[in-house]
Amino acid sequence: MNGTPFKLGTFAKAGSNPFAAIVLGEDAIDLKAADAVYRADGRSGLGATESLDALLENWDANFAKLQDIVAYFEKSGLRSGAQKLGDLRALPPLRRPGKMFYAAQNFQEHVDEMLRAGMTPAGGPKFSGEKSTTRPYLFLKAPSTLCGAYDDIEIPLGMAKIDWEAEIALAIGKRGKRIKAERALDHVAGFMTTNDVSCRDLQIRPDRPGLRSDWLGGKSHDNFAPTGPFLVPRAFVKNHMNLFIRLTVNGAIKQNGNTSQFIFTPEEQIEYASNILSIECGDVFSCGTCGGVGQGTNTFLKAGDVMETEIESLGKMRNRFVAEA
User: Fold this and answer.
1) Annotation: CATH topology of 100-323
2) What is the pLDDT at residue 124?
3) Range 42-78 burial, b when 16+ CB lie within 10 A, else e
4) Where do you find CATH 3.90.850.10 in the chain?
5) pLDDT confidence of 212, banded at 50, 70, 90?
6) How far is the C-alpha of 235 from the C-alpha of 6, rounded, in Å?
């Protein structure tokens, strides 16, 4: 990695269209404006500027160009198109991923607390976290669940068991099929903070116990995937396997784990998923939560509660829960 580290994001100002941006310190520099200034002296620019989703389509080339643009801005002192982060609404960095993969029970503490909470069916073998006897367990969450890092989240009508799951997410920047774990990071563009908000009322269906988990009802309500505020390029994340995961509700610490505690690493999750279907640019993997979710103590979110989710070096989110209108 050469040059000044930077982040990427998608932002909007009241009454204006969303824009993709390079984030340097507290400045969000409009990607389109930055690219235009850089091209002014006859240089070739980015392959796409309209969104981070489009930027991922040719990530390796675009990331190299982003480094050049940032170096140019740092040398010239220019901040063309810059706006202060505090004046902007942070949107999900990726507006509409193709696929969103989520890892179920991927930390030992979380496996244990969900066993204690009865979230594993009474009959049949129980997964205890022993990696040698199983493979990653992934489910899909609807991309329409995405919301910004500071957006409100509505508690669905009639639901009372709304839970939190702080997680690290990654974005795919290189397509592949049957990717080996040892090469999986070559396909990762960057990392994000996210939260797999869950509706435990519907996750286990009492009317259809033989079908076990209802992933649609349990996971895919509107705004149940706050993400951001940044996409941090992989080159600037020194060790994705040693980052703290922290979550508070109304200031009280509920989750305090580390990505070193993964049962299956993000690389192993990519290998597993890519053996089933092609992994495409813009796909997102949310890699599992640590211990401390509300289900473990039968404690759930209510209107007015404020949930703060932070992954070390990736950014902090603050989401308030409100009653559905």
Assistant:
1) Fumarylacetoacetate hydrolase; domain 2 (3.90.850)
2) 64
3) eeebbebbebbbbbbbbbeebbebbbbbbeebeeeee
4) 100-323
5) confident
6) 10
